[in-house]
Amino acid sequence: MPLLAISLPTLVELLAGGLTLGGLYGLIAFTLSLALATTHILNVAHGGFLVLGGAMGTLLITFLKMDPFLGVAIVLGTFLLVGLLFERAFVEPLMGRTPHEILIGSIVTTFGFALAIEAFLGFYWARHVSPQPSFSLTLSLPPLVILGATFSGSRLIILAFAIVATILFHLFLRRTRTGQEARALSQDFEGALILGINPRRVSRAIFALGTMATAAAGLLLVLAAPLDPFDGLRLTLIALTILVIGGVGSLPGALLGGILVGEAEVLTAFFIGPAWSPVLYLAV
Predict the structure, then answer these.
(1) Rounded Cα–Cα distance for residues 131 and 127 (Å)
(2) 3-state secondary structure of 261
(3) Over the range 206-217, which residues count as b (16 or more CB within 10 Å of their CB) and which as e?
(4) I want to staple 192 with a disulfide (CB 3.0 to 4.6 A). Which of 79, 130, 197, 284 is the partner?
């Protein structure tokens, strides 16, 4: 569709959709970036946690008919624990090695874990839940109409979550001792060690909070579009793209990169076709 042929309300809705998706992408990328900056761990399974969060929310709320607030609380509590266990199993054994060894080792081990997540979800979901593995949630909220443009209630919830989560991460990094130690490690790892900062304690906090936030983002992403068991690596690739654009460990950079990728994906899908979205954001 030519750009000049589109109405202003439709264009505003598209830009708002890209902003919503981009805010969520930026948050996902930042949690991956923060772990990389503070521990040198590149978690290729990052997108898999997002898919797992969406899958668990779909199972509890859609199939088991659980109260949505209780289901969300269970998902958040579960992935807080999963983050701690993941750090113990995949991060702790690599600590103390050189940054190069940590990076290569983390890529290999977490890539295998990502493949295991895909196989687990694809097989057991098809066998015990539904023959067509697909994760989605619906939220009955009235749309908001502003100056002729209609904004989906669920997308507004996603945008609100991205804003609130970004503010909380900013406060965590600026106002808490663990956040300040994480910033110190990301800026000068050896200097932070000389000052007596314990990287193990920071690593546990980063992976616990990051995994929980990623699962929460998965819950919200399935409100906007369905996911399948094999979307994890694609979402990790999006997060890495944003990380390259915005820089490692930068919250503003992750948000700006996420918005750029989100807008590119939405506009490309509308004007050219959804199949071309990955091509454009990788080109960006």
Answers:
(1) 6
(2) helix
(3) bbbbbbbbbbbb
(4) 197
Helices (H) and strands (E) in the chain, counts: 11, 2
DSSP secondary structure letters along 58-93 = IIIIIIS---HHHHHHHHHHHHHHHHHHHIIIIIGG
Q: How far apart are CA 275 and CA 272, in angstroms?
A: 8
131-147: burial string, b at 16+ Cβ within 10 Å, e else: eebebbbeeeeeeeeee
pLDDT digits (tens, 9 = 90+) for 17-73: 888 888 899 989 999 998 888 888 899 999 999 999 999 999 999 999 999 899 999
Tokens linked to 166: 């970004």
Return phi, psi of residue 148, to 5°.
Answer: 85, -10
210-246: pLDDT as tens digits: 999 999 999 999 988 899 999 999 999 999 999 888 8
List b or e across 20-39, with b for residues whose CB sees 16 or more CB atoms inside 10 angstroms.
bbbbbbbbbbbbbbbbbbbb
pTM: 0.89
Cβ atoms < 10 Å from Cβ of 261: 27
